[in-house]
Amino acid sequence: MLVLGIESSCDETGLALLRVEVDSAPILVGEVLSSQVALHEKYGGVVPELASREHLKNLPILFEELLDRTNCAIEDIDVIGVTCGPGLKGCLLVGVTFAQGLSSSSGIPIVAVNHIEGHILSAQMHYPDLRPPYLALVVSGGHTEIILVEAIGQYRCICRTQDDAAGEAFDKSANLMGLGYPGGVDLANLADAFLGKSRFTLPRVAREIESFSFSGLKTAIASLVRKEVIALQDHNERAEIAWTIQDSIVDALLYKTRKALDLYDVPLVICGGVSANQELQRRLRQLCANVFVPPLKHCVDNGAMIAYAAACHIIEGHSYGHLDIHSRWPVEMLKDFYGLS
Q1: Who wins on pLDDT, 319 or 121?
Q2: What is the reported pLDDT for 43?
Q3: Would you call the peptide bond into 26 cis, given omega within 30 degrees of 0 as the criterion?
Q4: Predicted TM-score (pTM) of this structure
């Protein structure tokens, strides 16, 4: 079964062709990705209307490029998986409309895919022996949550942010320090250069298990940066402040993950863009013996994870779902969406 995955939930346009068969490891035939970082950099964040226009421009070009690279034709595709949410409505609409156009002209069926489920299942795509149950720590610019994966399409939310996400806390902090956009990676690299014990402190936030919260921490970080504006001129002290910020964000993630692992003695998956953070990975591996992280290129938004999620539902015999757009779409709702209840 050759599956086309289409991802356009935010500011990255991703397409992939994935060959998936029952009881076999999936084969990535090819993938293409276009990032819009340069477009949104001057605004300090994603501008939804501009992002939608870029998807509209990029999708036909990338699709032709994908077919050329893989020597495939549209007739070779068996199924289309497309992100229907959560994400920016305009961006999602462009991707779904493109998928519908392909389907109408070729008769290829479409599977509606949840973006977060795509991130969660991306670990299984790379580790075929990994099977539910397991915990998934989903950490990105827009999402921070801990999910118990009971089966394909059946999820239980253990903990979810009630305001901002961890990735946003990284990026906003980097911006305050003048590290550019999106900046989270630059802040992490600067923090990793610091050796020693930091003299700066930040609060340990939201210690209850039910929810993450990063809004208060962001306020405390902003206060620290304003207070230490002179220290930021020195590279070593700049790295020390970056280390303090990273440590506070990672600590919040670790605290809730530790609580979840105490409740469920299962493997741990880390997924989403922030899962590439090396300090986060290092400290989580100290908590859990079985930690699974997708390769860097599949930590960020991509078409391969969408193709794989679609294939999983087909293999499980689930319904294809309705192609409705969902700006918010908790994964625990998928049980009803695919008719599994």
Answers
A1: 121
A2: 85
A3: no
A4: 0.95
Give pLDDT, residue 321: 86
Q: In sequence order, which residues have a C-beta less than 8 Å from that of residue 110 and are 6 or more positions away? A: 79, 80, 81, 82, 99, 100, 103, 320, 323
Largest Cα–Cα separation, the chain: 63
Percentage with pLDDT > 90 across the chain: 85
Please provide the average confidence, as pLDDT, over all residues in the chain: 94
Which tokens hold the place of 173? 């902090």
Instruction: Provide CB contacts within 8 A for 208, sequence distance 6+.
Output: none
CA dihedral 300, 306, 308, 309 (to 10 degrees): 110
Give the side-chain half-sphere CA count within 13 A for 332. Answer: 9
- CA proximity to 188, closest of 249, 134, 129: 249
- SS3 (DSSP) at 61: helix
CB atoms near residue 44 (< 10 Å): 14
Contact call for residues 92 and 8 (beta carbons, < 8 A): yes
Average pLDDT over residues 212-235: 90
Q: Which residues contact 173 (CB under 8 A, 6 or more apart)?
A: 183, 187, 218, 221, 225, 245, 249
Task: Express as a percent the part of the chain with pLDDT over 70.
Answer: 99
- Strand bridging mode 79-85 / 2-7: parallel
Q: How many residues does the chain have?
A: 341
Q: How far is 78 from 4, CA to CA, in rounded Å?
A: 8
Contact 108, 102 (CB under 8 A): yes
pLDDT at residue 206 tops 70: no
Task: Mark out the alpha helices in 107-212 (DSSP H runs).
Answer: 115-126, 166-176, 184-192
Rounded CA-CA distance 341/336 in Å is 6
Q: Quick check: 37 and 47 in contact, CB under 8 A?
A: no
For residue 154, list its beta bridge partners: 151
Angle at 50 between CA 321 and CA 324, to 5 degrees: 10
